[in-house]
Amino acid sequence: MSEFEKREGEIALSADPADFADDCKVVFIGKINTSWKTRAECPKNLVQARQRGIKATIEIDEFWRAGLAGLEDRSHLIVLYWMHQARRDLIVQNPRHRNEPVGVFALRSPVRPNPIALSIVKILGVDQATGKIDIDAIDCLDGTPVVDIKPWLGTIDSVQI
Amino acid sequence: MSEFEKREGEIALSADPADFADDCKVVFIGKINTSWKTRAECPKNLVQARQRGIKATIEIDEFWRAGLAGLEDRSHLIVLYWMHQARRDLIVQNPRHRNEPVGVFALRSPVRPNPIALSIVKILGVDQATGKIDIDAIDCLDGTPVVDIKPWLGTIDSVQI
Fold first, then answer.
1. Which of A33, A119, B12, B146 could form a disulfide with B30 if both were Cys (CB 3.0 to 4.6 A apart)?
2. Measured between beta carbons, which residues in chain A are less than 8 angstroms from residue B61?
3. Cβ atoms within 10 Å, residue A156
4. Cα→Cα distances B17→B14, B106, B113, Å
5. Is the per-residue pLDDT at A1 higher than 50?
């Protein structure tokens, strides 16, 4: 089945957000270097990515590198990245791991109105001069554009269930 | 001191990202209704917001509401919101709670190249018909635009320090 085909129970919006999204504009600040060159070999999520035990590197473009000062003191990073190959109009989806269609906002699918993915990863090293941040794992294609990086902070980002 | 004035040690970029950001376009999917009408009364972070014990409501626009199906089964939500009043060019900042200037990517400041803020909040209720999601607290101004909402998942978003 094509990745652009709809599965049973899936619903597409009446208009594609890619055609009208214009409320604000984002600049890419770098890219993520991973070992995954095609979708077929790319892990489906961060659990799978970690199981493979292969590190990745975020590379921040030179223009923004002054913004890395102090990041070496942090343990974990929240990475926001743009899933540039994902369609944006599938508002109800039927993922293989679920038994029924589910709304996009109840899923972590890269297919969403604004295809911004989020991973919380371990920082292994920061080199401000080259803009490179080594991380433990990530689940995206090589060359995926970065929208933002933020420190993970236990005081606000921990969840008690 | 004006909020747009630079503090000691702060560094602005040579060009303002607001003037050239155009790598991808985002659509706002709703807004956040909070009790904070001015910056002066707005909590500075999620810890302060929680201490005040005042709930908030995310309101998803009608066009996107089918995407909420199934969210009622989740305990916590990751909210991405656009800090529309924040400047974007301050790459090194000197926050009051720190002793020295720090890079923006080591801070959770709303002032950043792409001013997307992130909070992980508790879901109190979801009403798909009205698009309203009640949450325990959040630290933004009333009317702040929403970029994305995602379920928080313990399997990928928990951090072990």
1. B146
2. none
3. 17
4. 9, 19, 6
5. no
A38: its two tokens: 């095609």
Domain assignment present for A113: yes
Range of the domain at A42: 32-152
Surface of A (128-147) touching B: CB under 8 A: 128, 145, 147
CA distances from A116 to A65, A82, A142, B156 (A): 22, 5, 16, 16
| Least Cα separation, residue A41 to chain B (angstroms) | 20
Section A94-107 average pLDDT:
92
The answer to whether A148 contacts B116, with C-beta atoms less than 8 Å apart, is: yes
Mean pLDDT, all residues of chain B: 94
pTM, full prediction = 0.95
Q: What value of ipTM does the predicted structure carry?
A: 0.95
From the list B60, B145, B161, the residue facing A75 with the nearest CB is: B161
Domain count, chain A: 1
Quick count: other Cβ atoms within 10 Å of Cβ B69?
21
Q: Is the pLDDT of residue A4 over 80?
A: no
Q: Using a CB-CB distance cutoff of 8 angstroms, which residues of chain A are in contact with residue B27?
A: 17, 20-23, 113-114
With respect to residue B1, please indicate whether it lies within any of the assigned structural domains: no
B118 and A118 within 8 Å at the Cβ level: the answer is yes
Nearest beta carbon to residue B103 from set A70, A120, A157: A70
